[in-house]
Specification:
374 residues, six-stranded parallel beta sheet
Length: 374
């Protein structure tokens, strides 16, 4: 449930959100509480304010402050923003340790952390970058966390990749993906991610679309998941508009969003062209099979966009006004994301009308050209 004291972060008035959040920071009594609110400034696009507050409270001495600093550096497209997550002493030690292991030919296990999308993205970067290493065959990737089994099952299908054991290996240097990306950038070795799987039979002639309108709720950062998800009311409105267009009556939508039972009943009763497929998905291979049945893939910022780009499939991404800073890198680099991802981005704070409108325009254009769409 949204805390009533932070209601302003979930509306459409950006200036009000900035004003009240700055008041909350000013009135906070402890440094940790201030840092919690300071970090939220990046989620409403106030990077300058976040930077000023971090300096005022000496926030970069704390982990929460370092994470905010990292987001600021990445937003400003400063080379190697990962430096903010690692103290200068650890930077020197990490560089020396990795170079020693590489010179000795020892395995380097990169521990993939974060959500499914984070791990897919970083695995693709490791695969593209290993060619620049002295001993590329020594590089391993190891999925970790609650999603490790799901990610591991996907990566086992990828050719020319070494996957570390779940419990780790002896005589192996283990390093987390963020720290290894710092090292790659420090030594100018990082390459842009490329597709690592290829759908054998993409459904280019079907009248079917795979859609995900909601991200998974992050209990530790509900503002992030809220900002990336389309409200149910607008999902219903969007379906109503599509349903009323008789030219798309026979087109199917495979919706893999997560809904409550009540929400599912509303969609089923009013949208005969929509099939709710969430229950059909147990792993990423299930998602990939659905992708192969669809000519179009539409999603908000979830693991689906990373899976699609990793499989070399075109995907329409509905992006919030102040997205994860990674999208500045991924959209500008010569990568599978630049090649396959079309972005429909909010122009107003928590306002999905523009991206949903441009998406429908694309659907209408495709329909006139007899290309598979809704």
């Amino acid at each position: 449930m949204i805390k009533s004291t932070l209601w302003y972060l979930y509306g459409n008035d950006l200036e009000l959100a900035k004003q009240k959040l700055n008041i909350a920071i000013h009135e906070s009594e402890t440094k940790n509480e201030k840092l919690k609110f300071i970090n939220l400034l990046t989620y409403i696009g106030d990077y300058a304010g976040c930077s000023s507050w971090l300096e005022e409270v000496d926030g970069i001495t704390e982990i929460a402050g370092q994470q905010s600093k990292y987001r600021i550096l990445r937003h400003r497209q400063i080379h190697n923003p990962w430096q903010a997550l690692i103290g200068s002493q650890n930077q020197r030690s990490l560089d020396a340790t990795l170079k020693k292991h590489i010179d000795q030919g020892n395995p380097i296990s990169v521990d993939l952390v974060g959500g499914i999308g984070d791990q897919i993205e970083n695995a693709a970067i490791m695969m593209a970058s290993k060619k620049n290493m002295k001993t590329p065959e020594a590089l391993l990737v190891r999925p970790t966390g609650q999603n490790c089994k799901i990610v591991r099952e996907l990566l086992e299908l990828v050719p020319n990749i070494r996957i570390g054991e779940e419990k780790g290996e002896k005589n192996t240097c283990h390093v987390t993906a963020p720290w290894f990306r710092f090292w790659l950038n420090l030594n100018r070795l990082e390459e842009s991610p490329q597709a690592f799987l290829k759908d054998e039979y993409p459904a280019t002639e079907t009248r079917r679309a795979l859609a995900c309108w909601r991200s998974k709720v992050d209990e530790h950062n509900k503002l992030s998941s809220f900002s990336r998800s389309i409200p149910f009311r607008q999902i219903v409105e969007n379906y109503d508009i599509l349903e009323k267009d008789k030219t798309k009556k026979k087109h199917e939508i495979y919706d893999i969003s997560s809904y409550s039972k009540e929400e599912e009943n509303i969609i089923r009763s009013n949208n005969p062209s929509v099939r709710l497929m969430r229950a059909e998905i147990k792993n990423l291979q299930d998602t990939r099979q659905l992708m192969k049945q669809c000519s179009m893939i539409i999603t908000v910022d979830t693991s689906l966009v990373h899976l699609a780009a990793g499989c070399g499939r075109d995907v329409d991404l509905l992006l919030n006004q102040f997205p994860d800073e990674r999208w500045q890198d991924l959209r500008q680099r010569s990568s599978s994301y630049e090649q396959h991802v079309t972005v429909h981005q909010q122009q107003g704070f928590h306002d999905w009308s523009k991206p949903l409108g441009t998406l429908r325009d694309k659907l209408n254009k495709n329909s006139k050209q007899h290309v598979a769409t809704f």
